[in-house]
Amino acid sequence: MALVYFAGHGATFGDTSYVVPVDARFASLAEVPYEMVPVEMLIGELRRAKGLRIAILDACRDNKAEQNLKRTATRGGGDITRGLARVKNPEGLILAYATQYLSTAADGNANGNSPFTGALLNHIATPGLDVKDLFFRVGGEVIATTTGKQRPEISVSFYDSYALVPGGTQATPAPIPAPPPTLTPIVPSDPAAAVWNSIKETTSIAVLEDFIRQYGRTPYGSLARARLAELKKKVANVPPPASAATGVFDGAWTITRIGPCRVPRYQFLINIKGNAVSGVAGGGALTGTVKSDGTITFRHPTDPGPGVIDYTGALRSGSGTFRAPGCSGTFVANRT
């Protein structure tokens, strides 16, 4: 097992996500690769380890400190995104972010830990606690202590059971600063309850379907299925416009691919401009087209190649299918 932990600032320049060292100094894009550390480099180091690999990033994903630089670079035509973007999650990796994309992670008081790190320290030494349930508990505590203002995001490509501290072995926890007197965290003891509390108001069909796959046999599974049916009914009842104008689908979309492939669940971003689809996924550039009725087709190379993965779907329903060498499945499209 191998683990990387980072606490600080994060930023994305072009297609590359970085963590920012405390002594980083840069005034132009040309200096960025020499002053900051790519997140992929941290994950790349983890790939050499066998078994479970964990990357924990307690970083703001909407870093205000780089706004002036990003604004200047954008005038020059550079492709700049805000905060710490999502990165590819290889098989066997758990990637935990302190907050959602384009959101701010609280620093906490000056003499203590952030809400995310504090919650992590509260649970990491629990004997026999599966590592996935550990992060669900951490997420539930952060949501409770910040009254929903900060919501951690977890990407899981590890499906075996693993406890950082074996059952029956009591590890000595790290010292935890006393919380402020007025702070009374409410932590659900049930992992399914913690996750449901954080997503029960979602309007994402993909999020609800993922919850049902993991917790469908719990009492919250019935609530999730009812919520999913309600959302699908609303989507089905939306009448198409008499004539769809070019550009109605313009912008960034998150594609979540699900299927019995080498990576069972894979997310990436596409950009739509007019009837053209572009982006980067798998082993290289992504290209495709969108029709006025929302029908979308695109493809990208496999990683590793050679080969391509073809996608066909409908943006109005937010779903479609894909076919790759040796496997096929479905995908969900959500406007970012």
What does this structure look like?
The protein folds into three domains: 2-177, Rossmann fold (3-Layer(aba) Sandwich), CATH 3.40.50.1460; 188-238, no CATH class; 251-335, Beta Barrel (Lipocalin), CATH 2.40.128. Helices cover 25% and strands 29% of the residues. The protein has helices at 32-35, 39-46, 67-75, 115-123, 131-145, 191-199, 205-215, 219-236, and strands spanning 2-13, 16-20, 37-38, 53-60, 80-81, 93-97, 153-156, 251-258, 265-273, 276-281, 284-290, 295-301, 308-314, 319-324, 327-335. The strands form two sheets. An eight-stranded antiparallel beta barrel has the order 8-9-10-11-12-13-14-15. A hairpin with a 6-residue loop joins strand 8 (251-258) and strand 9 (265-273). The radius of gyration is 21 Å and the shape is globular. The model is unreliable at 75-82 (pLDDT under 50).
Average pLDDT rating: 81
Structural class: alpha+beta
Which term fits the overall shape?
globular
Which blocks of ≥5 consecutive residues have pLDDT under 50? Answer: 75-82
Second CATH tier, the architecture of the largest domain: 3-Layer(aba) Sandwich
If strands are numbered along the chain, what order do they take across the biggest sheet? Answer: 8-9-10-11-12-13-14-15
The total of helices stands at 8
Total of domains: 3
The CATH C-level name of the largest domain is: Alpha Beta
The run of helices and strands is EEHEHEHEEHHEHHHEEEEEEEE
Beta percentage is 25-35%
Largest sheet: 8 strands, antiparallel, barrel
Query: Over all CA atoms, what is the radius of gyration?
Result: 21 Å
CATH topology type of the largest domain:
Rossmann fold
Helix content: 10-25%
> What is the count of β-strands?
15
The termini sit apart by 34 Å
